[in-house]
Amino acid sequence: MNKPKYTIAVTGLNNTDNPGPGVPVIRALRSAKSFDVRIIGLVYENLEPGIYMENVADKVYQIPYPSVGSEALLNRIEYINSIENIDFLIPNFDAELFTFITSQAKLESLNIKSFLPTKLQFEEREKEKLVEFGEKYNIKVPKSKSLTSVNDISKLRDDFDYPVLVKGKFYDAYIAYNSEQVIGHFNKISSKWGLPVIIQEFIKGTEVNVIALGDGRGNTIAAVPMRKQYITDKGKAWGGITLGDETMLDITCKLIKNTKWRGGMELELIKNNEGDYYLIEINPRIPAWVYLAVEAGQNIPEALIKLANDEDVPPFTKYDIGKMFVRYSYDLIADISQFEKLSITGEL
After folding, report:
1. Are residues 46 and 93 in the same domain?
2. Which pTM value belongs to this model?
3. Are strands 36-43 and 59-62 parallel, antiparallel or unpaired?
């Protein structure tokens, strides 16, 4: 029996020291057993490494940043679709998700399917709302406060003990040990990601994560927990190992059941010395370490495409414990003509 072949557009090909999920998502799609793929890479910068990597994207198009406006982005998607006839779109950046979530009608009119969280799901788990989220769904979360002005920093000593975490609304997180460091991080983050900047109570413990997939009806289709073994200065996992942690799986399944989460997600947790788990962040999309879950036995991108296609997808029931990943740097050699063509035409 011949497998169907889908044209799938994927963003997030910036496979740097702050890697996007695009390249591992594509690796997962290419290893799918139920369909074949033609991959369209959608990039914001012409030096995203995934552009030049072999066996990643079949065709690459540059797209405008969401900050330019949803109309410009969607017009570009419409043009690309007129050439490529995209079947599915998998966005992989927090900063672009809101535009794609609120543009479902437009995407559907182009016959492009996706499987994303709802607008409510996306908004209620935002970092500045995490305390209220924890109260609503009975999950422990650290104390936090949103800052909209550098003048608010002097008041932090009334509510927090140092160190604290200083976080951007989309990305970046830094530890600050005094108010001067908070000011420095505040200025750096706000200039890059805008306001608010979030101050979060620092919970001492082990960083653990769960990658998961919800079907939008309260069922957990996939869930794999892991422990970070090596962490970069940007807080990114450069190595990790799958865990057999029933408490983490229980937290994940209850959260997906109560929120009826739709799509991929990552729960970032801290397990403190007393064995309590604190939810410090929810990323509303597939994380960059997704290929660890694939090799452990749960191909989440493949399952996500099947859900987007309205297929019945049975939940995964097992995964390999003790499966490790380690990232590495690798010098890609490309020709300047490739860079020039993408820069001039927006296509490669």
Report:
1. yes
2. 0.92
3. parallel
